[in-house]
Amino acid sequence: MTISITGGTGFVGQMVLDVAHQRGMAIRSLARNVPEGRDSVQWVRGSLTDQAALAELVCDSEAVIHIAGLTNTPDPAEFEAANVTGTETLIAACKAAKVKRFVFVSSLSARKPDLSRYGASKARAEEQVKASGLQWTIVRPPGVYGPRDVDYYDMFRSARFGFVPLPPGGASSIIHVRDLAGLLLDLVPASGLVLKKTFEPDDGREGGWSHKEMAAAIGDAVGRRVFAPHLPEGLLRAAARTDGLLRGSKAKLTADRVGYMCHPNWVARSDRAVPTSVWQPEIGGSEGFKATAEWYRREGWL
């Protein structure tokens, strides 16, 4: 079986390649720039706007896992092209090649499309997937962390100095990137338990993590007790404007991201849990945070 993926050079995609290699699975991956050291992967050079590359990507594939997407940008209009039009183009390529199995990586933010342009783009992409006629499954990951992650990394780096600024009070679920990668591959077999279903996986912690609990666990992972104040939304929006002025297109804190961050409940819904006969998380949050901190140290990030 050949499985084709998008986003193979990204944070989640690289872990999918790692897990697939360990399982002896044949993977074909789309990439704008083909990386070195992944000789077991059949690379297709191109992007989601390149119809010829997409046709090559999905040709003779048994399944497609669509991971690629834009998660953050100073220009919210870019979400539409990357996440909506890109998904539409990939679906068309699958239908032309008669590839039926389609696993789509969405986001919990699609539950509340009014809060962010990113979430709205993922919600529209989900509707395209549902209307595609393919044998689809949608996965809405919560916060994804682990080796190579650059978003939660900021919290680890800040925790080293005993300070972790937080958004207004709330709770969220998390999932280690290795567990997510395993889930995506486990979903490829098109059983009746997973077809035309939307799943919200997590690390198995009921009720998720409060922001304070997460900050404390990350502090423990780096060996520090942390001060973790909740910052008001107004201050976060001011910080986003400042980040945009200072870093321009490389700004990490944007107004769109603040809208998402300030929502109080990003806990995975139990009625959208993956059936335990299909997949179960293996890495709890505390364990995963410690392993991630160790990876950051080993790689010289901390």
Salient structural properties:
7-stranded parallel sheet; 40% helix; 3-stranded mixed sheet; alpha/beta; 12 strands; 10 helices; 302 residues; Rossmann fold; globular
Question: What would you say about this model in short?
Answer:
With 302 residues, the protein is an alpha/beta fold. The chain contains ten helices and twelve strands.
What features would you describe in this structure?
With 302 residues, this protein is an alpha/beta fold. The protein has one domain (2-298): Rossmann fold. Helix content is 40%, strand content 15%. The chain contains 10 helices and 12 strands. The strands form 3 sheets. The chain has a 7-stranded parallel β-sheet, sandwiched between helices. Strands 11-8-12 form a 3-stranded mixed β-sheet. Helix 3 runs parallel beside helix 4 (117-130). The longest helix has 20 residues, at 77-96. It is globular, with a radius of gyration of 19 Å.
